[in-house]
Amino acid sequence: MYGRYTQELGVYAKEEAARLRESGKKRSISEQSRNLDQQEYKGRCAKCRICTVRCQKFLISRVGEDWIFLILLGLVMALVSWVVDFCIAICLQAQKWMYGGLDSNVFLQYLAWVTYPVVLITFSAGFTQILAPQAVGSGIPEMKTILRGVVLKEYLTFKTFVAKVIGLICALGSGMPLGKESPFVHIASLCAVQLSKFTSLFGGIYENESRNTEMLVAACAVGLACCFASPVGGVLFSI
């Protein structure tokens, strides 16, 4: 009995010592970051930093953190939608240019017309499968699953965003009769998560699970609204 408690006491002492070491490291890191912050406010651009912080606090207090987040999300998604449409148009024009440049040989025209879409489709499938298999599919069923509280591993990462956008451009640029509405629901959710991660101003939005769900629902509405240019339709879809 005595030996068992002695062993447990030794294990407890080791764990407590490890915990104290970790807390000491965290304290030193926080002190270093605090010193760096103080040094920043003592530099040449101290007035600019102070003015930026004051403007940030004023915007949050007047407009609200959620509204600023939604405005930035709408602007980012509009830019992404324009880039996707522009790249798809370039891919389709490249196919027509290639077909018109080979008008002297009918067989080469046929070969170019058939090979070009096959190459784009193969690249789209292979690139997506290698970089992020989570980007496969439309994205709406998976987003419904996430909104119900199920955690899907690596489904809302930046790597998935890159694979989704490039795969969508190549698939639609090949001339396949597909739509970008469903993938844009997933892309908007990816943009919302990445915007929250890369912008410290919105770091608190995804700390609360209920607000996390609300922002993802809003992102789904933004994604659909970007495709149809119908904000009301996006809201009805999210409902």
TrEMBL record:
This protein's record includes keyword Transferase: no
Pfam families, A to Z: Voltage_CLC
Superkingdom per UniProt: Eukaryota
GO molecular function: voltage-gated chloride channel activity
Assigned keywords, A-Z: CBS domain, Membrane, Repeat, Transmembrane, Transmembrane helix
Residue spans crossing the bilayer: 67-95, 115-136, 184-203, 215-237
Gene Ontology CC terms, in alphabetical order: plasma membrane
Membrane-protein topology: Multi-pass membrane protein
SUPFAM superfamilies the UniProt entry points to: Clc chloride channel
Localisation per UniProt entry: Membrane
Name this polypeptide is given: CLCN2
Species per Swiss-Prot/TrEMBL record: Poeciliopsis prolifica (blackstripe livebearer)
Record gene name: CLCN2
